[in-house]
Amino acid sequence: MKQTQARLVSSTQLKNGMALARWSNQEDRIEKIHSSHHTLSVYLNGAENSLRRQGSQTIASKTSNSMCLMPANLVTDWDVHGPVSLLHFYFSDTHLSQLIEQVWDKDGRSVQLDEIDFAQDALLTQLFCTTLGQSNWQDPLDQLALDSATQTALIHTLRHYSQRRLPTLRPTGGLPAWQLKRVVEFIEHHLSQPLTLADMANVTGLSDYHFARMFKQATGYPPHRYVLRRRLTRARHLLAETSQNMTEIALRCGFGSSSHFSKRFRAETGVSPTEYRTQQRR
User: Fold this and answer.
1) What is the pLDDT of residues 29-56, one digit of tens each?
2) Which among 90, 218, 224, 269 is placed 20 to 30 Å from 66, CA to CA?
3) Which fold has domain 7-160?
4) Please, are residues 219 and 258 in contact by the beta-carbon 8 Å criterion?
5) Which CATH number is associated with domain 226-280?
6) Could you give the CA distance from residue 62 to residue 18 in angstroms, rounded to a whole number?
């Protein structure tokens, strides 16, 4: 984002050149801003403090949370007259084309996105304000959640905000038993390491999207939730059965630090790792 007083709060590069960025702004007049990539923008709060100018007209949001979609090379002008916080998701035609071919098995060329100003979209608001907005983008543990959320956002955008008429995706069957067994063994052997959706999908030879859907059908959990559960199960075993310290357990279970391990453990179990160990040894 150029020609603006906006402050970049955080950013991260995703796979294949996609990116996320969190921005904040207060008082600003933004002139003729444009990008070579598509931008899906969701206001985390303060959307009512932002106006888009189109000639002598202005477009405003009536709520605090709204979404905008700016196709590549679209030139826009904005006024900001109060605090805003927004999350941008950047992607290209290549990402959309690849997804159409993988998910719908259709020709992915000639994708044209709609230009959207301050729409209300419950799914995107939920994805951006919770999964994406609350994840630690620099933490390898959250990469699975980021992969899943951004893929969902792209599929939703293609179905609802493009000129392509793509059918609703219906649940299919789960992974065959032999594939599920192979993936589960792969996860167990790599719990101490960062895992991505692509890592697990490669074990089955499926695309990321089809793997994630079929894995959830087979296990009842999306991949990122399943992996977190397995990490915490291993952690509970180590806390109860060994004398390893918190840092050692955190690393063996794939958490980047003992503090992050403690935070995740308490969030899922309601007690700290130390409290859990004490309870198990009474």
Assistant:
1) 999 888 999 999 999 999 999 999 998 8
2) 224
3) Jelly Rolls (2.60.120)
4) no
5) 1.10.10.60
6) 30
pTM of the model: 0.81
Chain segment 237-271, per-residue pLDDT in tens: 999 999 999 999 999 999 888 998 999 999 999 99
| Domain extents in the chain | 7-160, 177-220, 226-280
